[in-house]
Amino acid sequence: MNLLKLLGWEVERMTKPYLILITLLVVTQFTWLGVFLWSETNMYEEIRRTGTPDYVLTFGNYIGGVPFILSIGVAVAAMLLYSFWIWYRDFQGRGTFMMRLLLMPQQRMLVFGAKLATMMLMVLGLLSVQWIALKLQYIAFTGWFDSQMIPVSGTFEQAIRFDGALSVMYPASFVNFLIHQVLIVLVILYIFAFVLMERSLWQRTLWAPILAMLILGTLILVPVLTFYFLENRLFMDELMLLILLGLIGWMTAAIWIARRYLTKKLSV
Amino acid sequence: MKRMWNVAALGAVVIIGLGTFAVDMRDTKAEWELAVTSNPEIWEEQTINLYYNTEEGDKERFDLTTDGSRVTTNLSYIEQALAYEDEVDSSVRGFYRQLSGLTFVQSIRTPDGYIGVGQNGNKEIIVFRLNGEDVTKHVFGKDVNGSAEIMDSPWAGLFVHDGNIHVIYRNGYGGNAETKIAKFDEDAKQITMESLELGDEAISTVRGTSWAFRPYMATIAADNRFIPVDMTEQTTVTEGGESYVSEQDKVGVYAYDVDTKQVIELTPDADMWNSTVYDDRLIALQEDGTELVVDLKTGKKSTRQVIDGSVGTTSYVGDQLYHARPTKDGAVIDVYQDGKAISSAVVKATNEEAKALVSNTEYYVD
Fold this sequence. Notes:
The structure holds 2 protein chains of 2 kinds. Chain A is 81% helix and 1% strand. By secondary structure, chain A is an all-alpha fold. Chain A starts with a helix and ends with a helix. Chain B has 5 helices and 26 strands. In chain B, the strands form 6 sheets. In chain B, strands 1-25-24-23-22 form a 5-stranded antiparallel β-sheet. In chain B, strands 13, 14, 15, 16 and 17 form a 5-stranded antiparallel β-sheet that branches. In chain B, strands 4-3-2-26 form a 4-stranded antiparallel β-sheet, with no helix packed on it.
């Protein structure tokens, strides 16, 4: 079984919950858009009747709403949880499924690669769906308010730039977008490393999760503390180089730990 | 096979979504050209900043040199780091590295090099001097008389006189605030403070003082008698039976006279367009295109006609005045020094994308 087959298999297993998540995301946002357009139009009409309305709506008002932020938060939380579940699921039922996986005649790191690729496909899929949804929501937003002769200011790009979460999800530079994806890969790698470490130690000690957290926490904290110590002493370009080296180091360490526990220590 | 269809479908969604995003986020393709018509040496080290702004909030920024134009908006982290490396010269890095660990810092540039004064929290005041690539540092701890008061106060800026660094600061708050000058004697490790009798007025800024990393600051002579400053004035306002102190900027050009310890008004005019402090001169461009030149050693004032006709966007680099006049395809930038035109260059939009930006673009040189 090669990587592609493993990937197809992993994707098939997550299809249903993933489609439910996307439906929830899109339905929540478009419902909120409907409520927003309706309530703002009513309010504007009310103000128009009593005097001259002097406030102007922006797309930022809509994406700054609690339902929109919550929908993004739920999607992020779901991705984080699934990064754990994609491994733990295989250990359910006395771990027979994982045992079958580990006994298959292929490198165990192919399983790791397939799970990582599945997670990234899911993350990129969500980002894609959200981007298209945002474009459609903007068309509906401006189209509705234009038809009601209610002034709207600001552009789509500005609304994204000024929104805390969306400006990170969709930065102005595509290179920065790719860099952010590398950071997401790093988070997933550390979750994978945690699960594999915990599953390798769980038969030996009850403290396996704490131990795994402590080891990985130290691995994360030491460079972060070093960075805060050096932050005021280095120039921006030097800091960038330091961050790049740190990321490479972190990523190498996470993969090395995961590989070591997956191939040599994992017990079912 | 069915399993692969799931992957293909998800892959297609990713390609469509992120493809749309990549197209939406594409960099501007606008390109500009700088054609120097006279005295090209002036432009060898010079960069023109092009600012495109619309009422709708669209923004584009470009750097233009004789080598061509470069977009500076929406840069990636890597491009930002490379641009920063170009900008902050290696010769001043040692100096700025010393300053960057401080919580508060101000610096000026003199013919002998850069001078910085900073605070490390409320623990100590540190004075730096950069000569060539050598950095000397003097620390004034809390035990030094006056240092605690200076660390607790907002600073207006620095100047150098008789070889000593002086900091102008405000002691106290509201109606009781008092403008004071602290003289740092680095060898004796002493600070001498002196109050200025300014009544309801205060010095808010010492011109030429920088709050940020600026490697190409204008050089200011170290023995000027007149130190150009900006002033504020306090008035007491009573509203609804309650009184409070309000502070406003004072219009005009002012200077602190080191000899008489008074602040004098150099010109009361409010129509100043742009100004610079360079070496021992304050040069202020007026709305009518004349320059007011004040000799900061003697206080002697003179005026000279520089720009004929209406004044466009202007910027000073050292004692050179750059004046941009918009044209159909971009702008003409004339350079003046000592009141005389010394060079001219044409900024031209070279493609359709750039031509679409011309009407909302402004041009500055730094």
